[in-house]
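Q: Could you fold this chain for me?
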Amino acid sequence: MIAIAIFGIVGIVCIQTYLMVIKQVKSVSDMEKVIIVANSKIEELKTEEEIEEKSGIFPEPFENYEWELKLSNKTIQDTEIGIVFTPFTLEIKWNGNSYSVISPFVKSEKEK
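A: Sure. Below is the predicted structure, expressed as structure tokens.
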């Protein structure tokens, strides 16, 4: 009887630990996806001549993720090579969560 009780307690502890690990694995997987979509959007924004959209939804299979671009009011000038950089914050939202990335290079233009 005592052995069955001990076995039951150990079983409950093992199940709780297993469920906690599964939850953590899902959380890490979600963050990996967010970092992937954030990096892809940053690279896309760097290549655009003029930024027309300031927010949107990612295409499949990431349609549950929304993005919003917030440009800084300040610019950084490199007078040596004549390029102007505009810092920005890219915010990714999904399932009530959010993740922000700050980058110094959204748009580069040659000075005229």
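A (continued): The CA atoms of residues 75 and 86 lie 5 Å apart.
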